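look at this one:
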Amino acid sequence: MFNVTILKLRDIIKGFAGIIIILFLIILISNNSKIKQSNNKLLSKLEEKYNVFSEKHMIECIEKTIPSAKELNEEYKEIKNNEDKEDFTEEKFLETVLKTEISSIKSIQNQEKNNKEETDNKEFEDKELQKKEESKKTSGEQNQEQNIQLAETGIKTEVITQNPLKDSYNVEYGKVKIKNQTEYNLTEEMLNPDIAIENKNIILFHTHSCESYTSSEKYPYTPTGTFRTTDLNFSVARVGEELTKQLKEYGYNVVHNTDYHDYPSYNGSYTRSLATVENILKETPSDIIIDIHRDAIGSRSDYAPIVKIGDNDIAAQIMFVIGTNEGGLWHPNWNQNLKFAIKVQEKAEEMYPGLFKPIMLTKSRYNQHTGKYASIIEVGATGNTLEQCITSMKYLAKVISELP
């Protein structure tokens, strides 16, 4: 495979020794059919036409056939020039060549391993992207089949939850109830929703994109976890899609992100969703940022908080979850977030009493430092069906559109 000697026509013995070494190395490292064929041709030419090859032609032929031969030939020359003649031997150089080839082969094997890992990762990403695109396509087809129905006003609303859980709260502001889980003393000034909503941009996203509901005849699905699914047509992403459509009907510019933040790994969901929101904000500055979840009440999988609106609509109840900086994370605008939730819920109690459960004020931040009016809304619980949660979005969009 390599020219291990500088052939001299007058030194026949040394020339034949060089050819023998070349043959040995070619056989040793040949590991694919193309190289073997090339080596065989080269060997054949060497055997049949050695007598007509000049030293220069022999070297050029080998170097063109095997790219690394040129480098080794130059290395040989350098070593030979730097070594004393009596200390330099063909055996020493052959040992150097073999070590170099073993290192090269290991490098090739490592590169092939890395390429395989990259290919496997790319295949996984492609499958997830394909799954997501198919989900969007299916969802789009369903939407085209349905006309968007806007919410009516001036209709009766009644809480009809079966086997309800008692709503606990310890603060009231007018008709708005708040479950304060922090050490903050919520004063009149802190609760007064004296804010102006001027920016018409709204960001919707899902930290737990795979949260889903009780399967129903209209929306049956195969779970990929306990009340979880990677099919976005049946998760909270579908709820966000409905809210997006409704809000756009009222003139809002809505960015709805449906990236998976809790799949394939649930841990780190909030870190990933934070990066998503920050990237969106670079292109679309927004005050209202809503992270849509499903209430996770593990001990009561049948719990389905619902309200009847008008004669026919059954809607899942909604709950604001507002974070603070009491957990130690920087969050200077948490009080503005709370005022926004109170403002929305105050209007909802006026239009559709019972649509909202008490606001939950917590010590955790939940990435709500990203927006002037950022919040979590939990739409329904595990016992609710997807259609009940979709119905809720019709009325939530109407409430937001009526904010002063």
Observations:
- The chain is about 45% helix and 15% strand.
- Residues 115 and 384 are 46 Å apart (CA to CA).
- The chain has a mean pLDDT of 81.
- The first strand starts at residue 157 and ends at 159.
